[in-house]
Amino acid sequence: MSDVVISSSTFHRRALRIFSLWEKKEDDSAPLPEVEHLLVVAGNSDEENPYRKGSALQTYLLGYEFPSTLMMLSNKGRAKKVVFVVSTSKAKLLQPLLTAPSDEKFEVEILTRSKDEAENKNLFEQVIDAIGDGNTVGTLPKDKMAGKFVNEWQSVFTSSGKDIKEIDVGPGVSTLLAVKDEEELRNEMHAAKMTNHLMSHFSDAMSSAIDQGKRITHEQLGEQIEQKLEDTKFWRSLKLGDGFETGFGDWCYSPIIQSGGNYDLKSSAQTDDQKLKPGVILCSLGIRYKSYCSNVGRTFMIDPDSAQEKNYLFLVELQKFVIGELKEGAVAKDVYAATVEKIRNDREDLLPHFVKTCGFGMGLEFRDAAYALGPKGTRTLKQDMIFSLSLGFHNIPQAKGDKTYAISLVDTVQVGKSGAKILSEGMKGKDDVMFFMDDDEEDKKKAAQGGRGVARKAAPTVMVKSKLRNENRDVDADALKRREEHQRELAVRRQEAGLERFSEGDGGRGRGEKQWKSFTSYQKESQLPEAVTSQKISVDVRRSTIILPINGYAVPFHINTLKSIVKQEEGDYTVLRFMFVTPGAITGKKEDTPFEDPSATFIRGITYRSLDGFRYAEVHKDITELKKAATKREAERKELADVVEQDRLIELKGKRPIRMTDVQVRPVFDGKRQMGDVEIHSNGIRYQSSLKSEQKIDILFSNMKHLLFQPCDHELIVILHIHLKTPILIGKKKAADVQFFREVSDQSFDETGNKKRRKNYHDEDELEAEQEERRRRSDLNKYFKAFSDKIAEASDGRVEVDIPFRELGFQGVPFRSNVLMQPTTETLVFLTEPPFLVLTLSEIEVAHLERVQYGLKNFDMVFVFADFKRTPIHINTVPSAQLDNVKEWLDSVDIPFTEGPVNLNWGAIMKTVNEDPYEFFKEGGWGFLSAKGDDEEDSDESEEESEFSAGSDVFKSESSESGSDFDDDDASDDDDESAEDISADDWSDAEEKLERKEQERRQNGKGRAASDSGSDRPKKSKSKSGKR
């Protein structure tokens, strides 16, 4: 134990937290509040039974399990004390605990044992005397400790003759350890990630064994997975984050692998020695990281039938439902009851096969029975509790034969305020767990899907490589048909999701109604200013209040209740007219202003007049300025409403942070551009200005939504752009985007090159400059890309580097300038200059293309967000030549789109949607956009056909008139001959022959015109005939 270091600060912080929870005397902590002493007597280590309350409590406070140790926590009012009885070597390790790091202290006493048995007995007697005769002490009898140390304690305790009652406080200790702090949550996260990676390794090993036909038993496969935990190179190669340390992982239990029809969904199941068989394969893995447990279970299916697929997908859907129920304040049995009710409503046929509990609490103990998610669970869930969410169905009859199978889905979850967070997310999608080894069956499924997924992966192109018009018509028609079919699927999916999201129970009328906001000027009469005694109009700037005399009383009106104030001159009098906000008054945007009691009596207006015009002018000025200041404050409050204060940046200590130097930042400080450095720290990055030390920007990994790198291949700057989840303050302005960039051109290089060009009249210098610029661009791209990758790596998987696809870009006007919009994997961006645009594709509900008409050079795009409260984004003036490319891109990222010939009033549309979203989807949802588009397309087609017909007639008439200059027989012969040529030969030959005929016709026309020059017949010019 020479390398053991105990943290005094952690011990004191957690011990104080235990004392605090102990004093609260909550119902869930019973019977702990009934005792004043909590006694933990640890015996010898027991590898067969590592999960004991006493060991968990020791690990929670000390970070390690100390065998042969007595620990007693005493909580007598303000007298808080922790007593240890330990050996000499352990006493040395506990010495740092005697020094409290904070002002809030409690006593720590360390009693050291020796080889003198009498002295050791005396130490135990001191502990017994501290408990006191006739008192009660909380113990943990279910731990079943054994060993010489425990026997000595039991002997002294029994022979003491003291009347001390022992109470089992195990359930209360569970409450003390249930809510995890930040360090514990970090350990749980690492444990869950380790389990996930091992599950991925199992999936590869299992599928490979099945595919190759290897005869391997469940035990042998389980041993392979167990050995992987000891593979240090494997864990180092995964790069699980700066906080992860290899060598601290251990198994909670041996891997549980089941197949072939024998399934047990209990956490105590064992792996048997049967051969691994195709079909349904269950695997459960549990890893402890620094003693904190995780649990993951998955169901793998080899060539599943449709019923098995359906049942598994329902299980995944059921887990999402339960995740929403696991929130702060929920009772364990209510979560189970809601789950059962969900199954009864959606899949009643599976209800008899559902497991008896939905999971259990977890942490330092693998299974805490006090927090079982079953029908008898009475514990209340709190934020940052950890649970093993275990859902499954067993003994399900197979479609063919008399065998049964089971499906299971187990994850480690963290309880939140509005729902749980899955720490072991992944490896549960259909593509992850279902394997189709039968080639014929797989071909059938691909044929049924029509190959749409494969076809949509092809990169769109605007180049026409065919020489013939009709060569690719069939291919384009097939692609168009697939796109239309996919769009119909997306529209149906959005409609169903909308109905489910805004069901009558939770999304009907009244969503987002404005709440009454009261304005209080004074709590009591004594707070009124002394100026009110003069019975004159007064302004209290500090309280934002106008005080008006009414019938001898000073009546205060908060400035926010004032609609307007008007000053007029009427003869010798000056008149002040006050108008207030009242129900029913037409107030423009405030027409629907809510009132606490609209039926009450309100003052709509009040008028005062006075001969003292100078004073009324001063009053009018003061009230106007007060109203402006209040309006400005309210605008600033709304502007900064979504700004969230970030946690503190944890700086790296002991090593130099990775740094990117000499970069500029946008938005800028004080409107001035300046250079600075960007550093990567433990939980975020920091930009530090090189000019002023106080000018710095901290961005946490947890607040990064998108990390974007834009190379400088076609730009003047190379960009590292961060789009934030919630805005932050930079200076006095909020910013949702922070960008670091460096200019490509070297400012020290004289681009004019006057002196060089006077001496050298060759292009060598220009070529050298171009090569240097290319090298500089390449170096900058590598530098910024490498730093972006370092940020993604340090974020522990929270963000990934996204790069714009310039070849998929299209021109548009998102704000005021026509710019190049570039898609990325997750976004649509414009990053070159502010204002920036970063559209998250997953947040888009639907896209609508406006002004899509034949003959127009541009069209507009509108993106509607899934959060209907957000204002739709408009991208205007997109060239019509890029319409097909835009449609193909939207379809490839699963965004349903519609099109129409005119611009719509989206303000009115979104107001209707927000008034009653459920009714909106019930009446067809976004279908009205496509319905309008179809009608307009039909009308456009009819118009185009009529125009084409008219054009044909005109062409015929023009041809007949222009042909009057020539001989009719020649013309008819030419027409017949050309028609035969076109029908007999291909298009290119026909074009050549038509060209030759046209030349011959022109020559004949010239000859005829010359021979007729002497006649009196009037001549027609081609231009005139063409105008007719």
TrEMBL record:
Main subcellular location of this protein, as a coarse class: nucleus
Pfam family, one: PH_SPT16
Bias (Acidic residues): 934-947, 964-989
Entry keywords, A to Z: Chromosome, Coiled coil, DNA damage, DNA repair, DNA replication, Nucleus, Transcription, Transcription regulation
Taxonomic superkingdom: Eukaryota
Region (Disordered), start-end ranges: 499-518, 752-774, 931-1028
Record-linked InterPro entries: Creatin/AminoP/Spt16_N, Creatinase/aminopeptidase-like, FACT-SPT16_Nlobe, Fact-SPT16_PH, FACT_SPT16_M, Pept_M24, PH-like_dom_sf, RTT106/SPT16-like_middle_dom
Subcellular location: Nucleus; Chromosome
UniProt family annotation: Belongs to the peptidase M24 family. SPT16 subfamily.
Role noted for this protein: Component of the FACT complex, a general chromatin factor that acts to reorganize nucleosomes. The FACT complex is involved in multiple processes that require DNA as a template such as mRNA elongation, DNA replication and DNA repair. During transcription elongation the FACT complex acts as a histone chaperone that both destabilizes and restores nucleosomal structure.
Subunit comment: Component of the FACT complex.
Protein name: FACT complex subunit
Organism: Microbotryum lychnidis-dioicae (strain p1A1 Lamole / MvSl-1064) (Anther smut fungus)
